[in-house]
Amino acid sequence: MLRLAASLGLTLRERNALLLAARTTFATAVDVTVAELHLEAFLPLDEESAAILRAR
Q1: CA dihedral sign of residues 37, 8, 3, 42
Q2: What total number of domains does the chain contain?
Q3: What is the DSSP letter of 36?
Q4: CA-to-CA separations, 50 to 22, 29, 47, in angstroms, rounded
Q5: Neighbour tally for 3: CB within 10 Å
Q6: Exposed/middle/buried for residue 44 (C-beta within 10 Å: 0-12, 13-18, 19+)
Q7: What pTM value is reported for the model?
Q8: Which of 12, 40, 44, 45 has its Cβ near the most Cβ atoms within 10 Å?
Q9: Spatial separation of the C-alpha atoms in residues 42 and 12, rounded to whole Å
């Protein structure tokens, strides 16, 4: 099974934020430095979660 993204729950000051975690890699890179690079992004799944993160 291939998982492209995962959900993540985060509690900040007794409020729950739901995030989508996505990770990408540069598997075909020729440069060793770029080949080891991984990018990870956390995106809010709903408007309430976005508001919680903007308030920080």
Answers
A1: negative
A2: 1
A3: T
A4: 16, 34, 5
A5: 6
A6: middle
A7: 0.64
A8: 44
A9: 15
